[in-house]
Specification:
Elements: E1 9-14, E2 19-24, E3 50-53, E4 60-63, E5 69-71, H1 84-107, E6 116-126, E7 129-139, H2 145-158, H3 160-165, E8 170-175
Parallel strand pairs: 7-8
Antiparallel strand pairs: 1-2, 3-4, 4-5, 6-7
Amino acid sequence: MPAGQADDTIVLSIAGTGSVLIEPRIPSAYFSISWNSAMTAKKVLYTAKVHTIGARDGGTSRSDDGRLDILHSLPGSKGSGTNPEQLFAAGWSACFDGALGLAARALKVELPADVAIDAEVDLCLEGDAYFLRARLNVSLPGLERHVALALIERAHQTCPYSKAVRGNIDVVLNLA
């Protein structure tokens, strides 16, 4: 514990900023952390609300509208549920597909009907630190290579998931 710091404080190191925030210890019922972002939303288009009970092994998640109602299983287990890495891969690839559509409209390119994205999200461990890394394998059949690469790059700059992970995890974009 740093000199002069009382037992009843919480120290948060904010990754990548070199900043340390020291707050008085607060009962967990009143604890909240918020980060100031350089991006401020003038208009919120949608808010996903999901309630989760339990963890990776037997937990459940359900959206407020009931469209998502899943059981969690450990990655690689024989359980019947899914895991956070699969959910992240599904969400990111669907969002990236939408961003490809925006990029195609902006560049006045017609996307092939059979666009496909195979997302791979790795859960990694080094020492006692868990982290993610990912690959998006994008199939744009029938497009010239330079056009396909331009679409992928523009989509990666636009996609909210890509923006969220930029600088936080290793990402490889492949033209399949």
